[in-house]
Fold Probable cytosol aminopeptidase.
Amino acid sequence: MKIEVKSEKLQDCTAQCVLVGVFEGEQDLPASLKDVDEKMDGALTGLFTNGEISGKKKNTQFVHTFGKTMVRRIMMVGLGKQEELSFEDMRDISARATKEALRAEATQLAFALDREADALGAFDAAHAFVEGAMLANYRFPGYHKETEEKPELEELTILCAGDTANEVTEGIRVAEALARGTNLARDLVNMPSNYLTPTVLSEKAKEIAERYNMKVEILDKADMEVYGMGGLLGVSQGSIEPPKLIAIKYQGTDKWENVIGFVGKGITFDSGGISLKPGAGMDEMKGDMGGAAAVLGALEAIGTLKPAVNIAAVIPTTENMPSGSALKPGDVITTMSGKTVEILNTDAEGRLILADGMSYARKIGASYLIDLATLTGAAMVALGTCTTAALTNNEALMEEVMEAAVEAGELVWRLPGYKPYMDQIKSQIADLKNTGGRNAGAITAGLFVGEFAEGTPWVHLDIAGTAWADKAGDLSPTGGTGAMVRTLAKLVLRRAEKTETD
């Protein structure tokens, strides 16, 4: 999709449709429409004066210019009350307007940035609009023999005042990077597991790393045996697909220090193993690598934006399958850390591979750890599908993540990590057991992973509910959502900005 910034007047725009924001209760014609109104003999003024244009949030109305201007149609887009307009509102409004325009088969759009810039600032208004449009435009092509042609956004032009062009251009640059990273994560989650095996996932990770000159290392089974990665090896032993551990280093400063570690769960298909899942809905378990997808999507955005920070990204990836060689309930494994784990349920496998991923991230220099995983159904029971569950051992890092999530427009809620919960995952015959039972399942699963932080500042993000959408919304179709890509990227960008100002 081509995106550009222009300072031309609306009536000279050649887009198929120009979008103009209107605040609720507004009766004065937006400045961007005044010249068009003259060419239309005051017709637009009449519509506003008579209250026929609604500024109700997300309301859209097409107005035809009947050949009196270069642009054929203008879409009036409701912004809601001016004093209430937020970045998230602007992004959601853009997504709704983009989808309405595409339904009308308008694939070349322009947005007249006017009073939105006064309300949000030119940078944020442009950022929000472009991000919303790109997220709404996302399509997963699928594997049909004959593809149904659906309109997609081809061109997007932001019309703005000349003195705001630089701010607008920078806002668009950030928005493009974040949306592209989010859409990459969506693609990975939506891919069937026979197309996205651990080997293919490692190849895609390598492509991203090499594209942005990041260092990449792919560990195979023999390497894992050397490191004693019993968690990853144990989960993988039921599958014919070989496991991989992906390690990517992004170095944005002169010294490899203050390294943020991203650890993403990469189960490319989760049958539950010997503790087999019910058949209904098991097809969605191709998305059990949503944590890995979020990490790779964030690296895609970070590679474009090049913040001055250091990142160690680690993705343990495998399938979890039942077979004669599969891990069994009652088995005891030894993780890379040396800690032993009693296996009570082979469907609690994500925490086992994350254990080794956390240890390896620390080995390659991570000073802070953030793990992301579609880890527990319990997180969905607690928080539904709109909010990511979080746990931490470090208040300052948790606050950073929460602030980044707010800025990214993603909902995160912290769960308690009190010591009594640890009693639920103590084993009589090993250091830990891999499930603490039904009560507080999201908490005990997160605390299990946190044991392998071993004192390193750590935040756990359980995206079981947020990584997949059962129904389409303004920003996303059904399937993978790309949850937490933008939060990770925002966290990094905020750190870089703070370093520059210190």
About this structure: The mean pLDDT is 96. Residues 2-179 form a domain with the Leucine Aminopeptidase, subunit E; domain 1 fold (CATH 3.40.220.10). The radius of gyration is 25 Å.
